[in-house]
Amino acid sequence: MKLSGTHLLVHADVNILGRNVHTVKENAEALVVASKEIVLEVNADKTKCLVMSRDQNAGRSHSIKRVSSSFERVKDFKYLGTTLTYHNFIQKEIKGRLKSGNACYHLVQNLLSSSFLSKNLRSDIYRTIILHVVLYGFVTWSLTLREECRLRLFF
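Request: output the structure for the sequence above.
Response:
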């Protein structure tokens, strides 16, 4: 928040969710109405819309429109460190996580192969550092069997 003359400018990230496009539209409109009641305005230029579905045609004809403007439709965006896509495919995200995990492993490879550390300590280092790099944000992933097998290879 910052104070500008007699106006209070609030910068906030808000995610509007729903099981279908209709619900998201209703929720977006409710946000706009509620914002106006407390003298806030949704900046349409900074607002993005992403409809996620594995269905190739889902949401193509839908847009989230307001009285004066519509929100920009995007195919992907980063949320909580995870790239979300309109098809809800995460192969690219998993590939990037595995690449980061491999890079992390190579950075600590000498430490992990050191005979001065016990096997348990090396295992703890691997689990607490490297696996967390690979699995960060995995709770948002919707895995196919193929993607799950690919991740299991890393363990």
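Strands lie at 2-4, 7-9, 48-49, 72-73, 76-79, 82-85.
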